[in-house]
C-alpha cells in the first residue's frame, strides 16, 4: 500500500507524542518526520518517546518575528 511512498510527515501543533496525535500510529509503523510545537514543556517528552522525529520548538505564523505564547489550563487547547 505504501510502496513508492516516502514515509515522512510534518505535524504542526504536536501537543503530545502519543495522546491526540495525528502521527503516532505512523511513527509506530516506521515513519519519521518533523513535529512543530511551541510548548517548551513537551520537548523532552517528544525526544524520549519519539527519538527518530525532529522536534522543532517553534510556533508558525504568517507574520515574522517573535510571538507571544499563551498557555491554557487544558494543554490540548494550546
Task: Provide keyphrases for this structure.
17% strand; globular; alpha/beta; 2 helices; 15% helix
3D structure, described in words:
This is FkbM family methyltransferase. It comes from Candidatus Shapirobacteria bacterium CG03_land_8_20_14_0_80_35_14. With 78 residues, the chain is α/β, with parallel strands linked by helices. It has one domain. Helix content is 15%, strand content 17%. The protein is built from 2 helices and 3 strands. The chain has helices at residues 24-28, 43-49; strands spanning 8-12, 32-36, 54-56. The chain has a 3-stranded parallel β-sheet with strand order 1-2-3, covered by helices on one side. Helix 2 links the parallel strand 2 (32-36) and strand 3 (54-56). The longest helix is centred in the middle third of the chain and has 7 residues, at 43-49. It is globular and about 40 Å long. The protein starts with 7 loop residues before the first strand and ends in a 22-residue tail after the last strand.
Amino acid at each position: 500500500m505504501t510502496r513508492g511512498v516516502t514515509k515522512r510527515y510534518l505535524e504542526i501543533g504536536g501537543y503530545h507524542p502519543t495522546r491526540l496525535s495525528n502521527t503516532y500510529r505512523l511513527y509506530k509503523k516506521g515513519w519519521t518526520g518533523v513535529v512543530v510545537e511551541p510548548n517548551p514543556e513537551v520537548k523532552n517528552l517528544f525526544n524520549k518517546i519519539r527519538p527518530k522525529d525532529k522536534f522543532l520548538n517553534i510556533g508558525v505564523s504568517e507574520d515574522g518575528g517573535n510571538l507571544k505564547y499563551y498557555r491554557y489550563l487544558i494543554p490540548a487547547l494550546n
